[in-house]
Amino acid sequence: MSTQRGERAMDRHTQRELNPLICTICERGCLLGQGKAGACGLYERRDGQITEILSDHYLAVCPISIETMPMLHYFPGNKFLQISTTGCNFDCPGCISTVIVREMPRHSKALSHLSPDQVVKKATSSGCMGIAFLMNDPLASLPTFLRVATLAGTRGLKVGCASNAYFTAQTLESLLPVLDFINIGLKGFSDESYRACGATAGMAPVFRNLACLVDAGVHVELSVIYSRDKKQELSDLAQRIADISPRIPLQLMRFIPFEDAGMAQEPSIREAEDFCRQLRSRLKHVYLFNTPGTQYLNTVCPGCGKEAIRREFYGPMGAKLLANLPAEATEVRCDFCDKLLDITGSMATEIHQEDDFQGGYPFTRALEMVEAMLIAMGVRQQKYVVRAWEHLLSRNGLKTLHRSVQQPLSYIETVRYFGRLIGTEIQTEDLACFLEAKLQNVSETLKGVKHRPRVYYAMAKPLFYINGGRMENQLVEFAGGISLNKQLPPGGRPGRSLSVERLNELNPDIIFISAFLSNSVDDFLAECIELGIEVNAVKQRQILVHPAPGWDFGSPRWILGLLYMAQALHPERCSYDVIAEAQAFYQRFYGIDFSSENINRSFSKPSANWHWQGKREQTAMSSSKNTRDRFTFARKLNYK
Fold this sequence. Notes:
By secondary structure, the chain is an alpha/beta fold.
């Protein structure tokens, strides 16, 4: 009898272990089986419990200024320790973090193990005010984040995160005692927008959590992607936010299409600034990101209406404080009318400068640049890209990479370096020799040229210039021009603003607009005239934009940009058919036709339709199966 009872008990235990468990970390409610993870891939059922698969492992740990996160109304300019892992509970179209949330394996060698105590000690030894979890969602590493947050709080550090806030009530209850600030990344203001990201319960949980966070006294800022098809939806969203509090800062992220997103949904600079201005009639603090040179990153004093705090574009999704810093930490007031501003905490007395590719989303751009090289070498399996990433990050190679991608010749040697690393020497040499041959052809064609046009390189808006040391300006000089950007002080990421007077002094003959964060020639020219820019390039309408994104930085396709620039600067010598050159390049290195309609802002993927071998089908099947299993199991339990 005792043997039978033991067998029955064992059978019940075995059955419990085999039964799926609904994950309570986020509102997706994935089914976790034995050895089976949910949508984020980072939790499984173990001994009947929801267990984090890889705890206390980080992809990035480094000091940042808080605007890099970005947070704009919380201790402006102060230094925080960024922590990032991998994975995300959402899968949003065109996500800028795809390389770390979908393509970086959870057990990658690029991740470093740090105990909560080590993380907190790094924050204090670096002079950080607190710790901020960003780039991927803390919901993918909730137990890890909670351990760090709890310990950090006992050491007097502020703790915050950037999250989609798809918390269950249970998760939010665990976060509230340890959370000081949060940037909630909204996906829109409709269930449809949320379900497009995999949020099966729609948008309601987010707005429930938003209200709870505000009521609990957590400093809340909101961010949302602004694409052309979301304008009315975001107008309605602004009204909903205003009903909670018109003083909650809203960060409008101008949509930059990456991965499989199309260019048609990218708002122009002018459209985005107009929309930002409209939303400011409903909310006190609306800011525009991904728009170099915009004035809509500045805080307007609610008292006198003047720009009380100035900021500048600092890479995708980031900003940098430009304000005159106080001698000591005090409450933040308007310099013009002395009104107390809607700022939590004091302003920094000095500004932290991040290392190259460190801090915020430029880290993801670095990984994508490596990916771009490998894809052009013919790599079609992600495991080879991961091997290169792991090698780069385990050797602290970001600074070296940043230097090497700024010069055509060192870029080519970097291509060879990664090609040797993953064992694709033949394909690598084909790409490297092609780039060298085109460089040599341009050099010989322009040999002995006497007149070199004066060239100014802008990003997005006329007064934001790209640093003189960057690849774009090296290409200008290879193409037979004089780079005026090299006469300007370096700084910023990837540049900074100058005055109308200084640009008029430079008097460029030709202006190129960046192929990454770009602008239409008509809008750019109209703004030049509005600002009083009276240079030869404006008078002669010599303002040029590349035929396609990715032609001047971040991808081997810069060689196509060089041909375009050489022909533009010296049509008397160069007669390249750049579209035919692009077609040949695409066929040779990507095995597809060149089509400007299918290209987006991605550095690595040559087309919005390009996918890793087998990846698209695998992802779709996995997502569909998890959702189907969840609802089948829910019906068995009579869930409604």
